[in-house]
Specification:
The protein has 75 residues and is mainly alpha-helical. The protein contains three helices and two strands.
Length: 75
């Protein structure tokens, strides 16, 4: 049994392909335009680039379609 099976999904390291799937973007777009934003989660590794899955999801939820913070449902 792989040790990764025991790690919660939110804590797993994910690459540009998976980040792209979460954001609805191509991996190249993630690397060239999203990952370089100062408010995007910090990379765990540079080659190959990886991020913490839960941090990417939190960022995505906070940066949806230009809806100002505090005006989203539930805020």
């Amino acid at each position: 049994m792989s040790a990764a099976v025991n790690i919660q999904w939110e804590l797993r390291a994910i690459g540009a392909e998976e980040v792209g799937a979460l954001l609805g973007l191509a991996a190249r777009t993630v690397l060239e335009t999203v990952a370089c934003r100062p408010d995007f989660p910090v990379r765990l590794t540079m080659r190959s680039a990886t991020w913490v899955a839960g941090e990417v999801v939190e960022w995505r939820n906070a940066n949806r379609a230009g809806i100002p913070k505090g005006r989203r449902r539930g805020e």
